[in-house]
Design brief:
Elements: E1 2-11, E2 14-20, E3 25-29, H1 36-48, H2 59-68, E4 77-83, E5 89-95, E6 103-106, E7 111-112, E8 118-119, E9 122-123, H3 133-138, E10 141-142, H4 149-152, H5 154-165, H6 174-189, H7 199-274, H8 286-300, H9 313-322, H10 335-356, H11 372-383, H12 391-434, H13 437-464, H14 466-501, H15 507-554, H16 564-588, H17 591-628, H18 636-653, H19 658-671, H20 676-694, H21 699-704, H22 713-739, H23 745-802, E11 809-813, E12 818-822, E13 828-830, H24 836-854, E14 863-866, H25 874-887, E15 893-897, H26 900-909, E16 916-919
Helix pairs in contact: 5-23, 6-23, 7-19, 7-20, 7-22, 7-23, 8-17, 8-18, 9-17, 10-15, 11-15, 12-13, 12-14, 15-16, 17-18, 23-24
């Protein structure tokens, strides 16, 4: 991936400003408040966007908005032009304010490809890198002063590291499996904490309850045995109380007979002293006095006014009558319906989202029956330059013809020389025989020389091959001329074929036709894929709708249809009915409280009415008695006072007759309405009854209690005997009731065994899950062992260069991403415990190494660095910059800095079209 440019339409202090970036290394230099951090954040926001979620967001998101959202401006918009490794040119557009109009557009094809990188509701270009916006920030995007943040985000990077180490590039990791296994243990097993509601805690509670119920059954059985023993004791106690009562009744009868005998003697004496005549009455108004006393007693005991309840019983009855009955059905949506509705809504959302991504053709389908191969052949014919006959061939033919002519001339000269030589030789031979030897030999030798010169000349002509060369040059000339003729004919035929196809005989038109055919094929392929996915989503929606309809029918709410709208409407109606039932149930639940309130109100009203009647009756009676006594009373209080005074006056009049009246009363009490003879007969009968009772008891015991019978002794004994009988009867009744409540010990023992079996099953399942988790952790460790050497190898390659050879060895903990380094042959030391600058240098290298590994198999990840050398000395700064420049040959490096030293290095080293230096000016205050 290469970031070509970033445009801050409205971001922080920038308005419609663009930053162009080089393919290799780009250094952006600026002083404080020049906007470096804003541009760094703008690049990150343009690539990754911000997640779309309800609520205020995380603290980091709120801080990002506070720092970079434009003041006094509703828009917050940034875009970037990026080129992917597959050649696609993509425009990323991020609406950070509303997070709605966010897109990734393929500029070449004119298609929205946001669906490829959608993450948390917005497109995230880091997905092309095998990362997401969070892990991109933790590795390749380094903010000012946050080089060490990779250690804090180590857990988040584990999934990406494990996917990079997986041979198949699967999205599943051991960490994910451990997470799902932990979730299974939490949901299906749980822990044994007291407040847990999961199965393991429930099984423990079930065992505890079963043990308690068994203990309760055993305790109730023991209590039953104890109660049976108690009844036997009560039965013996009742018999003992009855015997004691009979003994004391006999003693009481004897004493009663003696008392009656004494009463007879005293009555005889009083009768004789009074002469047998009743003394005169104390007053004639005794009845009136009694009624006055009763009226005064009733007046003094009248009840005080009683306060009435705030609401009357009639009001409460009316409210009870207005209450609805208990509803029948769900008062809140059932979990099965809710889950089915969530699946249905997710299916609808996926289908709607997919419908928006339907491929559209921004071109016309090519017409005609020509294939791509034919058009490509026509393009090759028309773009291939027509051959020409090289001028040197004509020159070579002319030279060859001259050579042939020279060869012919040499052959004629050689024949002449041979003939002349032969003739001279013959003449020499003749001279030898005619004139003399010397002239003849000389002549013969001269002839031989001439003949040899002729033969030599002929041999040179034969070895020159001028004729053969002429034939070859003429053949080459003919071939070149034929090639020109054939090329002209092919071009004419290609132009004629273009005319038949209706395509201009122009290379640009043919290339356009090829591009149109390729786009058409690609569009048809994308459209077919889209249609297949559309059909799958529609089937999924139909299945989700059927699931929701079945869930509604299971809760007694039949939908009017199985289509999407009918099922959604039925679910809304189901929720409305549940809310109505909930409100009805809440109203109906008040019936018990209102009934209790009605009962209390009725009782209070009855008490108040009774008190009013008693108070009114007392007032009317004292007034009536005052009138009867001849007393004028304006109100009940005055009447009561007057009657009290009347009673005191009457008491003074009757004191003188009280003594005789008392004696007469005593006599009458002794006689009790009988005569002396009858009283004597009762005394005799009492003695006879006492003798009868004494005959049924032990006389020795009776003699022991002869002088111990008190006035209230016998009622206490009768009450004790009665109480013993009642206690025996009550205990027998309670025993009969308790027999129905005695727990079954065998059933309780069986329930305890079942509960223990369920607990053992869950404990065994938990043990299996723990062993499985151990296996997964071992697998995760193996993955760590696979990827750790690669990280260490990269660090060991770069570390000596950056640290000036001080640190040459390093180890990495892949679980925490903590680095330990070794200086020479010294011990390993935690990099975070070294100087801040050295720690930042080491973890900067770790981040770059992580980028190599976690993005392996994906687009090339750019590095976005902000002031990463601020704590580094001059030598190490140059080493880091040189290393980054080498890395820029493989991936794009964007470095923000305020250091003049870095700026000077960039001016000297960043040359050519692949690198760039930007010098920012201070941003005007907003």
């Amino acid at each position: 991936m290469r970031i070509q440019s970033v445009t801050a339409h409205a971001f922080g202090p920038f308005r419609d400003e663009t930053l162009e970036l080089a393919d290799g290394m780009t250094v952006i230099v600026g002083d404080n408040e020049a906007g470096k951090s804003s541009w760094h954040a703008a690049i990150f926001a343009a690539l990754c966007g911000m997640r779309r979620r309800r609520g205020a967001g995380t603290s980091a998101e709120r801080e990002f908005a506070e720092r970079h959202k434009p003041w006094g401006h509703d828009h917050w918009l940034v875009s970037a032009q990026i080129q992917l490794d597959d050649g696609r040119l993509v425009e990323m557009r991020q609406d950070l304010a509303n997070r709605v109009e966010c897109s990734a557009m393929d500029r070449t094809m004119g298609r929205d490809i946001s669906a490829e990188i959608m993450h948390d509701g917005t497109p995230d270009a880091a997905r092309w890198l095998g990362l997401d916006r969070s892990s991109f920030m933790a590795t390749a995007c380094i903010k000012q002063g946050q080089v060490l943040r990779v250690v804090d985000d180590a857990q988040e990077l584990q999934n990406h590291l494990q996917r990079a180490a997986a041979t198949a590039g699967s999205a599943s990791t051991a960490a994910k499996a451990i997470e799902r296994l932990d979730a299974f243990v939490r949901e299906r097993i749980g822990t044994d904490r007291i407040n847990s509601t999961k199965p393991l805690r429930s099984a423990l509670d079930a065992v505890r309850r079963a043990e308690e119920e068994l203990d309760a059954a055993r305790a109730s059985h023991k209590l039953y045995v104890d109660r049976v023993s108690r009844i036997d004791e009560l039965r013996r106690a009742a018999a003992d109380a009855g015997d004691e009562l009979k003994l004391h009744e006999a003693a009481a009868a004897r004493d009663d007979a003696q008392e009656k005998q004494r009463r007879v003697e005293r009555a005889r004496k009083l009768h004789e002293s009074l002469g047998g005549v009743e003394p005169p009455a104390i007053s004639d108004d005794d009845d009136l006095a009694n009624r006055v006393s009763e009226a005064l007693a009733q007046w003094h005991s009248r009840p005080a006014p009683t306060s009435r309840p705030q609401r009357s019983s009639q009001q409460i009855r009316e409210e009870l009558e207005s209450l609805p009955p208990e509803p029948d059905g769900d008062t809140e949506p059932h979990d099965s319906v809710t889950q089915a509705a969530e699946e249905f809504q997710q299916s609808v959302t996926r289908l709607e989202s997919h419908a928006k991504s339907q491929p559209t053709a921004d071109f016309e389908e090519p017409q005609g029956a020509a294939t791509d191969e034919e058009i490509y052949g026509l393009l090759q014919t028309l773009t291939t330059a027509l051959p020409v006959v090289p001028q040197n061939l004509f020159d070579q033919v002319a030279a060859a013809e001259i050579a042939v002519q020279r060869e012919q001339q040499r052959e004629g000269l050689s024949t002449l020389l041979i003939t002349a030589g032969a003739t001279v030789f013959v003449i020499g031979v003749v001279l030898v025989f005619t004139i003399g030897t010397v002239p003849g030999i000389i002549s013969a030798l001269a002839g031989v020389a001439l003949a040899l010169g002729g033969f030599s000349q002929r041999d040179r002509g034969r070895t020159s091959n001028a004729g053969k060369q002429l034939a070859e040059v003429q053949a080459a000339l003919h071939t070149a001329q034929q090639r020109v003729t054939d090329a002209q004919q092919r071009r004419s035929e290609a132009e004629a074929r273009c005319a038949q196809l209706g395509i201009p005989a122009d290379p640009a038109a043919l290339r356009a036709a090829l591009d149109a055919a390729a786009r058409a094929r690609e569009h048809r392929g994308h459209l077919e894929t889209w249609k297949q996915r559309q059909a799958e989503l529609e089937v999924g929606l139909t299945r989700a709708a059927a699931g929701l309809a079945n869930a509604l029918m299971a809760r007694g709410h039949s939908p009017c249809g199985r289509d999407r709208d009918s099922v959604a409407a039925s679910f809304d109606e189901y929720r409305r009915v549940c809310r109505a039932r909930f409100e009805q149930a809440a109203q109906a639940a008040r019936r018990g409280d209102l009934n209790r309130e009605l009962k209390m109100a009725e009782e209070a009203e009855e008490r108040a009415a009774a008190d009013d009647r008693r108070r009114l009756h007392a007032e009317e009676r004292v007034i009536a008695m005052a009138d009867e006594c001849g007393i004028s009373s304006p109100n009940p209080d005055a009447a009561a006072e007057a009657l009290k005074e009347w009673t005191q006056q009457r008491t003074a009049r009757v004191e003188e007759l009280s003594k005789r009246q008392k004696d007469w009363v005593t006599l009458q009490e002794l006689l009790a309405g009988k005569s002396l003879d009858e009283l004597k007969a009762d005394s005799d009968a009492a003695w006879a009854h006492a003798c009868e009772l004494a005959a049924g008891v032990d006389q020795e015991l009776l003699a022991c209690v002869e002088n111990s019978i008190g006035a209230d002794k016998l009622p206490a004994l009768r009450e004790a005997s009665s109480n013993a009988e009642r206690e025996l009867a009550a205990a027998s009744g309670e025993l009969q009731q308790f027999e129905t409540q005695v727990g079954n010990v065998a059933e309780a023992e069986e329930a305890l065994e079942l509960a223990k079996a369920e607990l053992k099953r869950l404990q065994d399942l938990k043990d299996i899950a723990e062993r499985t988790r151990k296996f997964l952790e071992d697998a995760q460790d193996r993955v760590h062992r696979d990827i750790t050497p690669r990280l260490v190898e990269t660090l060991k390659q770069w570390l000596p260069r950056v640290t000036g050879g001080r640190y040459t060895d390093a180890v990495v903990d892949p679980a925490t991403l903590r680095v330990r380094v070794r200086a020479g042959s010294g011990p390993l030391r935690d990099a975070q415990l070294l100087s801040h600058g050295t720690a930042e240098q080491i973890y900067l290298l770790l981040r770059v190494a992580l980028v190599d590994h976690v993005t392996n198999g994906h687009d090339t990840c750019p590095l976005l660095l902000d002031d990463v050398t601020v704590h580094t000395d001059k030598a190490r700064t140059h080493a880091i910059l040189e290393l980054l420049l080498e890395i820029a040959e493989l991936r794009q490096v964007i470095l923000f800095t305020q250091e003049q030293e870095v700026a000077d290095w960039a001016r000297n080293r960043l040359g050519g079209p692949h690198h760039r230096l930007h010098e920012l000016q201070q941003v005007a205050p907003v």
